[in-house]
Amino acid sequence: MKYKAIVCDLDGTLLNSEHTISKYTRDVIKDVTSSGVKFFIATGRHHMDALKFKEMLGLDSYLISSNGARIHNENNDIIFKGDIPKELSNEIFDLNINEEIHKSIYKGDFWYSEKPLDEAQEYHKESGFTYNVRKFSELKNSEVIKFFYINENEKLIRNLENEIKEKFGDRINLTLSLPICLEIMNKGISKGSAITDILLPKFGIETEEVISFGDGLNDYEMLDVVGEGLLMGNCNPRLKELLPNNKVIGRNDENGVAEYLKKVFL
Prior knowledge:
Blueprint: E1 5-8, H1 10-14, H2 23-33, E2 38-42, H3 47-56, E3 63-65, E4 70-72, E5 78-81, H4 86-93, E6 102-107, E7 110-113, H5 120-123, E8 132-133, E9 146-150, H6 154-168, E10 172-178, E11 181-186, H7 191-203, E12 210-214, H8 220-225, E13 228-231, H9 237-242, H10 256-265
Parallel strand pairs: 1-2, 1-12, 2-3, 7-8, 12-13
Antiparallel strand pairs: 3-4, 4-5, 6-7, 6-9, 9-11, 10-11
Helix pairs in contact: 2-10
């Protein structure tokens, strides 16, 4: 089949371990899109953060950010907003979270954190997008794009995942972008729903005509709904368990996305 569109995650997928896009990958994407194939970024990052990579690739396309809670058009205008409503966000703010776990939210055009997170500087060095330190008690009574919790101890994060699932059930979408980063979005919000409900109808493209790439559990819905969903060689083992029939390709540090695109399109 001739694919008409590519949807690609950033961290662990398009970005290498230096948290940037290699020149080789940029050149391959330029060659592929020059033939008329559309290329869309779908990331858990904030839209103001992800915009840097869209510009780096020279893309004139829609941008899915915050795991599908925001979609911006080619002019960077919001066309979809799926925030967690105030009443529900207040319940999440009130959760009793282990003090060792780093707490952050995306709200509007900002990233707020209750305390500094030094390693964040490395992840966001390309864009320069960073957090503002604020007490969560000052941020209540408002809509939130997403909550996320980080700790290098995967067991702590897994325990928190189970606790939140038990408390909120299907009132939220709970996922992990990394094994050490747990994320909460509003019910029904995912990269997959952003693609099927908003993106593809806009361009008259069928799901079977789309190829996508991802490495984290927050990519699950996206990889499951398209014509071909590719798993990175460095992907979360839990993602492989959920999608046992999906093809595994090269790692992000091996230009895995670019190498596969060359085989399919060039």
